[in-house]
C-alpha cells in the first residue's frame, strides 16, 4: 500500500513551471495563464485507488486512477493532450 496522501494541499510555489510546460509543448497562452494560478489539490485515497482534484479559480480538474496500473489521462479543455 502506498503512503497516505489523503488531505487538502495548498500550493506555495511553482518554480520553473513555465519551462516545464514549454518542454511539454503547451501553447504560450495556456502557459501564461497556468503560471499565474496557484491551484489547491484535494487527494482522496482508498488503498491503491486515488482521486486527485485540482481546484483553481480558472478550472477544476479531477484525475482518478489506481496506483501501478496504466491509465489514460484526458486533458481536454486544459491543453487538449491525452497522456498515458
Going across the major beta sheet, what is the strand order?
Answer: 1-2-3-4
Unreliable parts: none
CA radius of gyration is: 14 Å
Instruction: Please report the total strand number as a whole number.
Output: 6
Number of helices: 2
Major sheet summary line: 4 strands, antiparallel
The secondary-structure class comes to: alpha+beta
Relative helix content: 10-25%
The fraction of residues assigned to DSSP E strands is: 25-35%
Q: H/E order of the elements?
A: EHHEEEEE
Mean pLDDT: 86
Oligomer: single chain
In short:
Keywords: Transport. With 84 residues, this protein is an alpha+beta fold.
Q: In words, what does this structure look like?
A:
With 84 residues, this protein is an alpha+beta fold. It has two helices and six strands; from the N terminus they run βααβββββ. The protein has helices at residues 17-23, 28-36; strands at residues 7-10, 40-46, 49-55, 61-66, 73-74, 82-83. The strands form two sheets. A four-stranded antiparallel β-sheet has the order 1-2-3-4, with no helix packed on it. Strands 5-6 form a two-stranded antiparallel ribbon. Strand 3 (49-55) and strand 4 form a beta hairpin. The longest helix has 9 residues, at 28-36. The radius of gyration is 14 Å and the shape is globular. The two termini are 22 Å apart. The model has no long low-confidence stretch (mean pLDDT 86).
Amino acid at each position: 500500500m502506498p503512503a497516505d496522501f489523503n488531505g487538502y494541499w495548498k500550493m506555495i510555489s511553482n518554480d520553473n513551471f513555465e519551462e516545464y510546460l514549454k518542454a511539454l509543448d503547451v501553447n504560450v497562452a495556456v502557459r501564461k495563464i497556468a503560471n499565474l494560478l496557484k491551484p489547491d489539490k484535494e487527494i482522496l485515497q482508498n488503498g491503491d485507488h486515488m482521486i486527485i482534484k485540482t481546484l483553481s479559480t480558472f478550472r477544476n480538474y479531477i484525475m482518478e486512477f489506481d496506483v501501478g496500473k496504466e491509465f489514460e489521462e484526458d486533458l481536454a479543455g486544459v491543453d487538449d493532450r491525452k497522456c498515458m
